[in-house]
Design brief:
This protein has one domain. Helices cover 10% and strands 44% of the residues. It has a five-stranded antiparallel beta sheet with strand order 6-2-9-5-7, with no helix packed on it. A hairpin with a 7-residue loop joins strand 11 and strand 12. 25% of the residues are buried.
């Protein structure tokens, strides 16, 4: 009986610390840029996924496989006008296309929010990011679960 209770508690602890919000790796985006020009790539669909009332991002880390372009990487939340089309990639300043641009740390996603990766190359080369690790937490309706999950998109930026 104690063994069954211990197994149940271990499963509950694992479940609480391993949410699955963004899905496994699988999608890919490839684009070209020029040295010094910001390239912005949406790495999530807008808002929290269906059935999730509240999700707060705590941290995002890029899993870089190659960076021969000397690119910097930063993350932000782009709030779009719901009447605008879908955000995929955008070359230039996000403030030109987003109603609001805010940091991802402690960002609570709303329906019109895209999580964006912005990269700026310092020389010709390639930036290859096969996935991202999102650390986030749910709200009260999901028992404040928290964890880190590898996301579903691969981003490659080539600078000729």
């Amino acid at each position: 009986m104690v063994f069954i209770l211990l197994c149940g508690l271990c499963w509950l602890a694992w479940w609480w610390a391993h949410p699955a919000l963004f899905g496994p790796p699988g999608n890919a985006v490839g684009t070209q840029s020029t040295v010094g020009t910001p390239v912005n790539v949406s790495i999530t669909f807008p808002g929290a996924p269906a059935g999730v009332d509240e999700v707060t991002i705590e941290d995002i880390a890029a899993n870089v496989a190659e960076n021969t372009s000397g690119a910097t990487i930063s993350f932000s939340v782009c709030t779009m006008d719901p009447a605008q089309g879908v955000m995929g990639t955008y070359e230039g300043d996000l403030h030109d296309v987003c109603l609001d641009v805010s940091p991802t740390t402690d960002a609570r996603l709303s329906d019109s929010d895209y999580v964006m990766m912005t990269t700026v190359a310092t020389q010709a080369g390639v930036l290859d990011v096969p996935s991202f690790d999102f650390t986030y937490r749910y709200g009260w309706e999901r028992l404040f679960r928290r964890g880190t999950e590898e996301t579903a998109i691969r981003v490659t930026v080539t600078v000729p």
